[in-house]
Amino acid sequence: MNRNIFKSIFILTSLLAGNPAYPFCKSANCIPQKNDLSINSCVECQASQYDFKFDYTQNCSGYLLKMTTAKYPSIGFTFPDPADYSALAWTDAFEAAHQKFSREYAFSNWKGVDWQGLCDRFLPRIIQALEVGDEKTYYLALHEYVCSIPDRHISLSAEDTSVPTDIGKKLAGGGFGMAIAELDDWRVIAAAIVPNGPADQAGILTGANILTWGGTPVGTAIGRIDVGAVPFNTLSCQIGNEKPQATNDHYRLEQTRLLTRSSTGKDVQVVFKNPGAAIARTATLTAVDDSGQSFSLLNFAKQADFSDQIDYRILPEGYGYVLVRMEHDLSNPGYPTRIFQQFQEAITVFVTAGVPGVIVDLRGNFGGSDELAADLCGFFYAEPSFYEYQEYYDKRTGKFLRITFSDSAVVDHISIEPQTPHYSGPVVALINPATHSSGEGLAMGIARLPQGNVIGFYGTGGSFGMVGVGGTIVMPGGYTIEYPCGRSLDQYGGIQLDSRNGIGGVLPNPRVPKTIKNVLAFAAGTDIELRYAVKYLRGYKPEYQ
């Protein structure tokens, strides 16, 4: 099922009351096989036995998918309804939205969300905005509210982006003419300099150690940046809506990027030490309107191009390389067959050529279909393997129910099934913090392989929930809040990949070192992560040798 799931409502049969290990299978004819991986065939057996029929009915909530049997009545599992509070006053809309959001959000307990604390913090700001009729204050309160929960599947969109764009320009429209980076040894360097910009004119060179910023040790100054207080998507040319960061690493990255942004005309005193210099120097930099230029100088969490095209080639070093930007067909809302076929074509070429290793580039992957992510993993698996259970908020009970959807059907779980042709050699996934949703699932599947590994400067985004059914609230002003009502579970029933206490996603192993040499080369345009993947494959030795 697509992680932006189809807008249907499923009615669940009482078969779900069976064995918790096999909640959809009670038949003695369904025999679990090796590694607990035959559940899909059990579902087929059960469906055949009880003569399932699917009826589509229109109702006020969207589409109703009714599952009936001759033996069991419909129970009525129901996704939550989307809400439209656009006609309400700002305060009334916020209170209604907060109640719905806090009730249906899939990770409240997992992330320890203090919903009452959030209401106490932001409702007075909404009230104040309403009293003076200040839409920018209202929007900024909504933005900070949404960004207070570390989940990349939570977002705030705007029909008219003029308000968030104006706020972003006011707060961060000015740049100091450089991008900085934090190294593994906690030094902060000027990783890239804008020619003739404020930093360049002050004599700061690429590779300079930045010691203090505004009279504060630079590491401390970075930590004081409130990323959620700045809507900067438009300035940074990011695709998609405003959303929070789910992991500590990603949040720290955005803090570092925002330190060199400010309102136009603002001064900051910087103490720096150029490469090879004996003493540190002090300069006062003035932020200039640069149309967000410093954002593009260095980005460890860069998104892929917004395309569903699969690109592949054999590298000069002889390894197969395939770029997967998303697991969603932009021209077809159903299963992304075309993407599967393109990936299959790439693997066929690699197998025929006898490449000694394959690199799957998932950096900036936008996500999409769970089924496709599991199926793409299948080209590297010789045996079936568990991928996920799913749980969704059930409107009837106000609780979360384990129910897994695959290609618009209810199954026990999604599994990775071996595909043809099979590639048995070493596989490396390239990732970054913009590797998102089902893209993280593909990285997870590769990481679990004995011959698989994951490489990058940073881990993935740490957001693996399901959005798109009911988790949508339209607010006054044309702003929309979206959030996940579903969560992914591992084979033991635990939440997988979604961040907790700032830790989550798929972590690289090995992690590309953030040395001054690597960071400067990366900022200059060298694909250091790809180089490390090639280096890893050159030294790869199977465990059995």
Outline of this structure?
With 545 residues, this protein is α+β, with helices and mostly antiparallel strands. The strands form 8 sheets. The protein has a 5-stranded mixed β-sheet with strand order 15-16-17-23-24, with helices on both faces. The protein has a 4-stranded mixed β-sheet with strand order 4-25-26-5, with helices on one face.
Keyphrases for this structure?
545 residues, alpha+beta, Pdz3 Domain, 2-enoyl-CoA Hydratase, Chain A, domain 1, 5-stranded mixed beta sheet, 4-stranded mixed beta sheet, 29% helix
Topology:
Blueprint (H helix, E strand, L loop, with lengths): L7 E3 L28 H12 L2 E7 L2 E7 L14 E2 L5 H15 L3 H4 L3 H18 L2 H12 L8 E4 L3 H11 L1 E2 L2 E5 L5 E6 L4 H4 L7 E5 L2 E2 H6 L9 H4 L11 H12 L1 E2 L4 E7 L7 E6 L1 E2 L3 H5 L13 E4 L5 E4 L13 H17 L4 E4 L8 H8 L7 E10 L4 E4 L1 E3 L2 E3 L2 E3 L10 E4 L7 H10 L4 E4 L16 E4 L3 E4 L3 E4 L26 H8 L4 H11 L7
Parallel strand pairs: 1-3, 4-25, 16-17, 17-23, 23-24
Antiparallel strand pairs: 2-3, 5-26, 6-11, 6-14, 7-8, 9-10, 9-12, 12-13, 15-16, 18-19, 18-22, 18-27, 20-21, 25-26
Low-confidence region ranges: 5-74
CATH architecture of the domain at 300-382 and 418-462 and 506-545: Alpha-Beta Complex
| Total strands | 27
Strand order of the largest sheet: 15-16-17-23-24
Would you give the CATH topology of the domain at 300-382 and 418-462 and 506-545?
2-enoyl-CoA Hydratase, Chain A, domain 1
Distance between the termini: 39 Å
Radius of gyration: 25 Å
Shape: flat
